[in-house]
């Protein structure tokens, strides 16, 4: 009996010892994890101060030409609350020079709207600099209006934007600096792709509808195609930088038949601009990482048949251009100052 009790006591003591050891080991692991996490978070700041990196300015800030900013060309249509919200946001971006609102409504902008927007710009102005506001009035309602030549643009850089999307100023100005390194290319936040269709059905369809480019048929690839493959060949003009010379080219050299097609179908002006730039450069666009905030209602991309209509546009444009000018790429520009994991 005594031997049995002694063995039980020894077993209980050993169990307690193991429990304490296990608990202590868990605590040590948690403490070690916290120390590692703290070191990873704090080390960059300490290293920057120790090495003197915190006193260095970013290269793109040093390279930027003084007085050279960008102009926003904003497309809008009877969404005055969204317009006010967008103007109020972008007016605070430090490198913005002017805002041109593409106005295609039958009635001109009201005096109260113009006064309200100018008041916003005055309240957001920094020192003597004030962003200039202009309405580009169009008699005809056409999606081509967003790419009409603007004679009095003071900047080479144009940031084409819809009134229902918001990007942080830091993202916009990073994209602007990327564009400065490749001013002939389109640089934007919303990538899309095109694919050579391999199915027999699509091939037969291309033979029936049109003869072009050795009877190849191309399909439009939306965001999920880009996400899945990491490949894109367009950046949409709903949020993209390009050189102002492309407004002149679009206005004067884009085939009238394509502009009529765009006006009639109320679609694909953004694809047409991508074709125009790619045809001039034989180079791909540049996709820039950025956080997008959609402040409007669901757009036409959510409607049924959207992909088919966009595919038809691509093939119509290929037939008109006589070739497929779009160039695919997998390159993505990321601001390394604000991202550890690229």
Strand-helix topology:
Layout: H1 2-51, H2 59-63, E1 70-75, H3 80-90, E2 96-103, H4 111-124, E3 132-137, E4 157-162, E5 165-166, H5 169-181, E6 187-188, E7 191-196, H6 200-209, E8 218-221, H7 223-229, E9 234-235, E10 239-243, H8 245-253, H9 256-265, H10 269-281, E11 286-288, E12 293-294, H11 306-321, E13 332-333
Parallel strand pairs: 1-2, 1-4, 2-3, 6-11, 11-13
Antiparallel strand pairs: 4-10, 5-12, 6-10, 7-8, 7-9
Helix pairs in contact: 3-4, 10-11
How would you characterize this protein structure?
One of its GO terms (cellular component) is membrane. It is found in: Endomembrane system. This is Glycosyl transferase 64 domain-containing protein. With about 350 residues, the protein is of the alpha/beta class. About 45% of the residues lie in helices and about 15% in strands. It contains 11 helices and 13 strands. The protein has helices spanning about 1-50, 60-65, 80-90, 110-125, 170-180, 200-210, 225-230, 245-255, 255-265, 270-280, 305-320; strands at about 70-75, 95-105, 130-135, 155-160, 165, 185-190, 190-195, 220, 235, 240-245, 285-290, 295, 330-335. The strands form 3 sheets. It has an 8-stranded mixed beta sheet, with helices on both faces. A 3-stranded antiparallel beta sheet has the order 8-7-9. Strand 1, helix 3 and strand 2 (about 95-105) form a beta-alpha-beta unit. Residues about 45-65 have low confidence and may be disordered.
């Amino acid at each position: 009996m005594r031997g049995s009790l002694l063995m039980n006591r020894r077993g209980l003591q050993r169990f307690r010892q193991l429990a304490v050891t296990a608990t202590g080991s868990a605590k040590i692991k948690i403490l070690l994890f916290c120390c590692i996490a703290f070191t990873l978070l704090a080390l960059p700041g300490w290293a920057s101060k120790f090495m003197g990196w915190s006193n260095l300015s970013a290269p793109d800030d040093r390279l930027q030409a003084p007085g050279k900013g960008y102009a926003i060309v904003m497309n809008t249509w009877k969404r005055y609350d969204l317009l006010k919200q967008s103007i109020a946001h972008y007016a605070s971006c430090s490198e913005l020079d002017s805002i041109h609102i593409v106005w295609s409504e039958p009635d001109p902008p009201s005096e109260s709207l113009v006064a309200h927007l100018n008041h916003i710009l005055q309240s957001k102005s920094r020192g003597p600099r004030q962003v200039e506001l202009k309405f580009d009035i169009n008699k005809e309602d056409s999606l081509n209006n967003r790419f009409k030549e603007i004679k009095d643009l003071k900047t080479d850089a144009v940031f084409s934007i819809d009134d229902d999307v918001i990007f942080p100023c830091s993202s916009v100005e990073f994209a602007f600096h990327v564009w400065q390194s490749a001013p002939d290319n389109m640089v934007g936040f919303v990538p899309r792709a095109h694919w050579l269709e391999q199915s027999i059905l699509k091939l037969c369809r291309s033979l029936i509808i049109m003869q072009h480019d050795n009877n190849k048929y191309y399909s439009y690839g939306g965001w999920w195609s880009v996400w899945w493959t990491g490949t894109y060949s367009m950046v949409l003009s709903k949020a993209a930088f390009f050189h102002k010379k492309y407004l002149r080219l679009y206005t004067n050299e884009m085939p009238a038949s394509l502009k009529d097609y765009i006006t009639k179908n109320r679609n694909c002006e953004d694809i047409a601009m991508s074709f125009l730039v790619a045809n001039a450069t034989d180079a791909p666009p540049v996709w820039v990482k950025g956080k997008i905030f959609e402040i409007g209602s669901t757009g036409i991309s959510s409607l049924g048949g959207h992909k088919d209509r966009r595919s038809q546009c691509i093939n119509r444009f290929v037939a008109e251009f006589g070739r497929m000018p779009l160039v695919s790429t997998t390159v993505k520009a990321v601001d390394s100052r604000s991202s550890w994991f690229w």
